[in-house]
Amino acid sequence: MSRVIVIGAGVVGLSCALRLQHAGHQVDVLARDLPLETTSAVAAAIWYPYRAFPYERVTGWSAASYHEFERLAKEPDTGVRMIEGTEVHRTRTADPWWRSAVPALTRVTTMPAPFADAWSFRAPLVEMPVYLRWLAAQVVEHGGSITRMALTALPDQGEVVVNASGLGARLMAGDHSVMPVRGQVLYVEQFGLDRWWLDSPGPTYVVPRSKDVVVGGSDEEGDWSRTPDPAQAERILQRASVLVPELARARVLRHKVGLRPARPRVRLEEEQVSGSGTAERIIHCYGHGGAGVTLSWGCADEVASLVGPA
Ligand SMILES: Cc1cc2nc3c(=O)[nH]c(=O)nc-3n(C[C@H](O)[C@H](O)[C@H](O)COP(=O)(O)OP(=O)(O)OC[C@H]3O[C@@H](n4cnc5c(N)ncnc54)[C@H](O)[C@@H]3O)c2cc1C
To answer: Probe ligand 1: pick from 40, 68, 213, 256, max atoms within 8 Å of CB?
Structure first.
């Protein structure tokens, strides 16, 4: 059995850890932020390929994750559900580039103004606090560990290191092409909403969960501020109320901001390492932008196949 160290306890690191354990590896996760403190915990989280590149690979990873989430939705403890929802458009719009990743996409021809087009599909909705707790418990149950540790560089010991540090890859891999794309959301009390809505300006989304509804959002490139902006929250709520009018009267519970780890393309590759002072093998898996949940299982499968059998 080989030992793998995974850096990062967000959705990407934990999914990789679990897949590697299934392949027979002993896995230890090291992370500055524990699962519920990560960007992943702020994700809405709807399965949707957004702000992640390149399209061709993202479509494949998204399709793989869709199937895995469909399977996980059969287990209530996971916090994953398959929910029908609608994406609206103000002009006639061609099928999305990721069309092949979902089994069915239905055109909606009856949308009222200002919308001219829309499509509906069943998407995995992932209630992140529940799901991250479940993932972390799975990692521990399979003999792994999750330890808080803020690193200044990738560990120089161990047979294999998987770098799933998200935005932290700026430091961990010296990669300044990873940039924050700030996203603000607010949570309102659940009022009986049972489908999701999505609109591109903003982007605007409304995602129902068991006890609350996530309302988003924003995407400020290069903005490092984690402080919610009250004026922005007001604008988000106004935009979202066009999709779901009940939101205008809903009780606001709290506000949050997360920094998406964006990159011109997801980095999923083995780095060729040489010399002392480095681990024997380093596999990078970061830069998932606005789709880390959506890509998580597809990428974890690929990381496990790069690492190989135990
Ligand atoms: C408002 C918002 C809404 C979103 N909605 C969705 C959605 O609906 N669907 C979707 O698919 N995606 C969504 N996303 C995107 C998604 O949240 C990210 O793509 C995803 O969380 C990235 O996961 P990650 O594991 O790579 O990074 P993170 O969750 O950021 O985890 C990185 C880990 O690396 C650790 N780390 C970093 N630096 C160090 C260091 N120096 N030492 C040790 N550990 C370190 C961190 O502590 C953390 O544990 C949303 C994001 C935001 C902000």
So the answer is: 40
Which strand ranges, in their side-by-side order, compose the sheet holding 145-148?
Answer: 145-148, 26-31, 3-7, 160-163, 281-286, 267-271
User: Hey, CA dihedral for 221, 266, 166, 240, is it positive or negative?
Assistant: positive
Residue nearest to atom 19 of ligand 1 (CA): 292
197 lines ligand 1 (CB under 6 A): no
DSSP 216-246: E---EET----SPPHHHHHHHHHHHHHH-GG
Q: Which two tokens stand for residue 172?
A: 């961990």
Q: What is the pLDDT of residues 103-150, one digit of tens each?
A: 999 999 888 888 999 999 999 999 999 999 999 999 999 999 999 999
Q: How far is CA 239 from CA 9, 172, 199, 201, 253, in A?
A: 33, 38, 9, 9, 18
- Report yes or no: 47 and 64 within 8 Å, Cβ to Cβ: no
Which tokens in the block code for residue 183? 């996203």
Atom of ligand 1 nearest to the CA of 216: 1
pLDDT one-digit tens code per residue, 153-164: 999 877 899 999
Helix (H) / strand (E) element for 163: namely strand 160-163
Q: Which residue lies with its CA nearest to atom 30 of ligand 1?
A: 39
CB 50 within 8 A of CB 62: no
Instruction: State pTM to two decimals.
Output: 0.98
Q: Tell how far the Cα of 196 is from the centroid of ligand 1, in angstroms.
A: 22
* Residue 79 Cβ < 6 Å to ligand 1: no
Residue 43 Cβ < 6 Å to ligand 1: yes
Ligand 1 pocket, 9 CB below 6 A? yes
Query: If you measure from the C-alpha of residue 262 to the centroid of ligand 1, how many angstroms do you get, rounded to a whole number?
Result: 10
Under a CB-based contact definition with an 8 Å cutoff, are residues 59 and 291 in contact?
no
